[in-house]
Amino acid sequence: MNLAEFVKGLATLSWLVVAGLIVLAVVRAWRSRPVRGLSGIIVGAVALAVVLTLLAAGLVFVQPEERGVVISPYDPQGYRSQALGPGLHWIIPGETVRLYSISRQTYTMSVATTEGDVYGDDSIRARTNDGQEVYIDASVIYAVDPDRVVQLHIDWQDRYQDEVVRPLARGIIRDMASQYGVEEIVSTKRAELEEMISNQLAAKLQENDLILIDFVLRDIHFSEEYAAAVEQKQIAEQQALQAQFVVEQRRQEAEQARQVAQGQADAAVIAAQGEAQATIIRAQAQAEAWRLLAQVLRENPELLTYEYIQRLAPNVQVMYLPSDAPLLLPLPNP
């Protein structure tokens, strides 16, 4: 409890004491008892109550998050030009003080029934430059300019939220949204849109003795018809991507099969070439062997008979020949 409230409490208590003393005096008088000493006490209590009341009426305590506008019948313009800052102040009895909070305040406009400051759907309906209708949820975080509280009181009193913040925000959001296409708002240009709204709103609030702290573009949603169209478009795009993926997969499989077949063909060619080369080499070797054998036989004709006998002898132990049959091979003459 601050000092001003304490003095007001004492003033109230003093009047209660005065009332109690008066009742006591009336009762004593009705019972024919002396009230001379009590009368003096009542006068003193009334005087103290009056002093405390006047003192309480002149003391004003302003909280750190507040500023006070003094309404004065003694000033020609009807108010003091300087607002009261935080702390304890004395005002002339007859003057009144209107307190304004300079703390940050948030005004929310949302499609959700109980989420915004207005009950029900309070989103901003706007139309883009390509004719599509969008619904925007937003929050404005602002504060009263502490240096211009007096002018705010003169212009708006306590109506600044409903008559300044709300209409300015909704109007600027609609104007800025109309400069973009619907796909730009929800994708590439969303940050730019939010920045433009913030700049415009800050300038307009400043003209009306308010400070914009932040602007939050909470959500952007569409009409049911456009949302259905967007969903169908996304489905078609996904199907096209899937088909493209299948085609690419089939192409890669065909390329892989072609490469395998080419490898097999190349391997067969290489194998055939190797076999042919081996055949040639074998034929050449065989021909050379026959050539050498023929040369040996020409130079040593008896070698053939010798080889015949050598190959025949190990397998033949007894041979019967007719008496009149000549020898199988002619024997060389001695």
For the structure shown, list the relevant keywords:
334 residues, alpha+beta, Tetrahydropterin Synthase, Chain A, 3 domains, four-stranded antiparallel beta sheet, two-stranded antiparallel ribbon, 56% helix, 16% strand
How does this model look, in words?
The chain has 334 residues and is α+β, with helices and mostly antiparallel strands. It has three domains: 3-64 and 84-96, no CATH class; 105-222, Tetrahydropterin Synthase, Chain A, CATH 3.30.479.30; 238-290. It contains eight helices and eight strands, in the order ααβββββββααααβαα. It has helices at 3-30, 36-58, 149-155, 160-177, 182-186, 190-207, 224-299, 302-312, and strands at 59-62, 66-71, 87-90, 96-101, 105-109, 124-127, 133-144, 210-222. Strands 5, 6, 7 and 8 form a four-stranded antiparallel beta sheet that branches. Strands 1-3 form a two-stranded antiparallel ribbon. The chain is rod-shaped.
Topology diagram in text:
Elements: H1 3-30, H2 36-58, E1 59-62, E2 66-71, E3 87-90, E4 96-101, E5 105-109, E6 124-127, E7 133-144, H3 149-155, H4 160-177, H5 182-186, H6 190-207, E8 210-222, H7 224-299, H8 302-312
Antiparallel strand pairs: 1-3, 2-4, 5-7, 6-7, 7-8
- The CATH class of the largest domain turns out to be Alpha Beta
The count of domains is 3
Mean pLDDT: 81
Q: Which consecutive residue ranges, at least 5 long each, have pLDDT under 50?
A: none
Radius of gyration (CA) equals: 58 Å
Ends distance: 160 Å
Instruction: Count the beta strands.
Output: 8
The helix/strand class is alpha+beta
- What do we call the CATH topology of the largest domain? Tetrahydropterin Synthase, Chain A
Beta content: 15-25%
